[in-house]
Amino acid sequence: MITVTGARKNYGSFAALDDVSLDIPGGALTALLGPSGSGKSTLLRSIAGLEQLDGGTIVIGGRDVTGVAPQKRGIGFVFQHYAAFKHMTVRDNVAFGLTIRKRPKAEVARKVDDLLEIVGLDGFQHRYPAQLSGGQRQRMALARALAVDPEVLLLDEPFGALDAKVRADLRQWLRRLHDEVHVTTVLVTHDQEEALDVADRIAVVNKGRIEQVGDPVTLYDRPANDFVMSFLGSVARLGDHLVRPHDILLDRSCERPPGLDAATGSTSGVVTAVVERVVRLGFEVRVDLRADSGDLFAAQITRAQADALGLAKGETVYARPAPATGAHKVAPALAV
Amino acid sequence: MKTSTTARIGLRTVALGYLLLLLAVPIVLILWRTFSPGVGAFVASVRTPAAISALNLSLLIVAIVVPLNVGFGICTALALVRGRFRGRGLVQAVVDLPFAVSPIVVGVSLILLWGAGGWFGGVENLGVKVIFGLPGMVIATLFVTLPFVVREVEPVLHEIGIDQEQAAATLGASTWQTFWRITLPSIRWGLTYGVVLTIARGLGEFGAVIMVSSGFPGVSQTLTLLVHSRYIDDHNAYGSYAAATLLMGLAVVTLLLMTLLDRKRSTP
């Protein structure tokens, strides 16, 4: 488990970390999610000891490591651009940490073979990094980091340099790997989908501060503020409500549909809008709308709903937040 | 752009002719003059005590200069690429100084500094003869060859970045282990290239060395000095050609070595 307390880091007048405190539970996979420049990578690198904090403390597994060199923190680190040792074979890359520790040859060989099997690089022992694909290199880097039995595994945008398909595969793979290995893992990402997909817990970072920490469902359904809400998925503004596009109900009449009662509070968010475009995306249908106020927003409905409504460009509809999500955040700050 | 066939052939002829006249003809001429009396004459001429001593001295100087330049070059390149210190621009400019300053100027300034009455002239009283001794020739050669390792290693360091070194650190490697296992192997080709250039330049140095050498045949003559003195002082034109050919032979070996290494580099 990792505890960060009051972490500060400035680059000139820019505060990369502004009094950050965060508890990262042991054994879980935690994502630090935020836009670029939010300080999430600085936080991760500070945990690793690759950056020195200007203030605050970092405790890993009960040991204060604030002033400790990266070599002695018991961490494994995976870099966005792999940081593969280009002049070494896959085997030597993975064995590096063990060779440094002067472990017996037989033990090193056994461990490396085991790890290469786990990461699916069996048979690639004698290749050089240049002969591997991006995804393979990153899996090698992961095996290399795991070889030294780190207390915590730190991943800095590990899939950021890969193409979309490989990225999706690899994060599924990472999740399965984590379920097997159970090492405390911190993953930095700017991709909310990735965070929602793999993480047990997400800490949303913005402008050097932690906005909210929680499990993916909580963050998605009960965001603490507008930033978290808009960063974790697309949003539409209905009057003074911020709603997810798939939580918008569309109606042909402004009458409340049967079965909805006033207690849901959903009537307050009814907005009259004109259909600009209807896009069929397989099962889902996206309806681009222009509200009375001139605001553009999109609603996501099912194909069946779209067929029932029979929407066409130029028609007027009434949009309201779905009742179950009426508790979704009201954002006075954004209400005009 | 499309050029007509005549223009293309014309351009090639000019370019080839230029190379031929400036580079190939003089070298071929020397080789021809050297070997026209037969290989035996050449061998005899480069096996005189003076020639053997000159060859040994040239190789000795290079053997001292190369490790010093490697050490200094790697440190300087690391400082220039990784360091954030004041005066970095100044160091950059100073490193290039030997490219700009004529070797003869280097020779004169070394005499001023180390010679009798110079700032460091006092070392002669301690029994160390810098000017007109081996140390002077080594310092002169160091000066003119200083930029090569730095300038060859620097771009490689830029290119590899610090990710690999940081990765090594997180895996438990100390600074020293990281240098030996990660940094040095990563820059080895740039370093090799710098060493080859240093050797070639060191063997061929004349202007700075002639100023600080006593120039006694068989004692303090390098190969370039031998070529010069045989021609000017001894009026031994043939001996001069033969020594020049020997010097060229060393350069060719160095270049061949470099080409071989280059080929090895392109296939990982």
Nutshell version of this structure?
Chain A is of the alpha+beta class. Helix content of chain A is 27%, strand content 31%.
Give the key terms.
heterodimer; A: 336 residues; alpha+beta; six-stranded mixed sheet; five-stranded antiparallel sheet; elongated; disordered C terminus; B: 268 residues; mainly alpha; MetI-like fold; 2 domains; 13 helices; 77% helix
- Unreliable stretches covering 5 or more consecutive residues of chain B: none
Could you state the order of secondary-structure elements of chain B as H and E?
HHHHHHHHHHHHH
Number of helices of chain B: 13
Number of helices of chain A: 9
Q: Biggest protein-protein interface? A: A-B, 30 and 19 residues
Summarize the amount of helix of chain B as a percent range: over 70%
Low-confidence stretches of chain A: 261-267, 326-336
* DSSP summary, beta strand count of chain A: 17
Fold-level CATH name of the largest domain in chain B: MetI-like fold
Query: Which CATH-level-2 architecture of the largest domain in chain B?
Result: Orthogonal Bundle
The averaged pLDDT of chain B comes out at: 90
Shape of chain A: elongated
What is the oligomeric state here?
Answer: heterodimer
Which bin fits the share of residues in helices of chain A? 25-40%
Give, in spatial order, the strands making up the sheet with the most strands of chain A.
6-7-8-3-9-10
The overall pLDDT average of chain A reads 88
- SSE string of chain A, helix = H, strand = E? EEEHEEEHHHEHEHEEHHEEEEEEHE
Structural class of chain A: alpha+beta
Q: Which value, in Å, is the CA radius of gyration of chain A? A: 24 Å
Largest sheet of chain A: 6 strands, mixed
